[in-house]
Design brief:
By secondary structure, the protein is mainly alpha-helical. The chain contains 9 helices and no strands.
């Protein structure tokens, strides 16, 4: 063996010895505080409604004016009330953020600095309030009990869909 091979063998044996011995102790890092930095959910809502209104349309799919009207409407009807830590605008903001962006509870948790349980609770409460509100806000463009003329006067294309019900009604009337 020449000198280079001897040096290589010694280096390899030295590495094997290092693997079997205990690793040197690594100094521990100081524990970081678990404080979450950044703006809170209430500060985020205030910023996009009052300071940067152009972002409101992007984040919540509502203009600041429409957002304020929705929050006031839900408060006036008694559908939503302030929680101990989460106010109604933040509750509505969390729900709209989820609906507008398809965000997960974890995304909202990080954005609004709330726990997942709180996000889930307020999302469900705001959805219930919006469903209650929907009967007053969403209005059909026609009467629901009126039959459109193209169905009533035609025995053509649409007749196949209503033929069975029509015949059942006739049987029921003449019994």
């Amino acid at each position: 063996m020449d000198d280079e091979e001897n040096v290589l063998c010694v280096m390899l044996l030295d590495d094997v010895d290092n693997l079997t011995s205990e690793p040197p102790s690594i100094p521990r890092l100081p524990r970081l505080r678990s404080e979450r930095g950044g703006e809170s959910g209430g500060e985020f809502i205030h910023r996009i409604v009052y300071e940067e209104p152009e972002i409101s349309k992007e984040q919540l799919r509502l203009t600041p004016h429409a957002f304020i009207q929705l929050v006031n409407l839900l408060i006036d009807r008694g559908s939503l009330m302030d929680g101990t830590k989460v106010k109604v605008p933040e509750q509505v903001g969390m729900c709209l953020f989820i609906l507008a962006r398809g965000a997960s509870y974890r995304d909202v948790k990080d954005k609004f600095k709330r726990g997942i349980g709180a996000v889930k609770h307020y999302h469900r409460e705001v959805l219930k309030a919006l469903v209650e509100l929907s009967s007053d806000v969403i209005r059909p463009y026609q009467k629901l009990n009126a039959v459109p003329e193209e169905i009533k006067d035609s025995r053509g294309y649409y007749w196949l869909y209503f033929k069975v019900k029509f015949l059942l009604r006739l049987n029921h009337l003449y019994k």
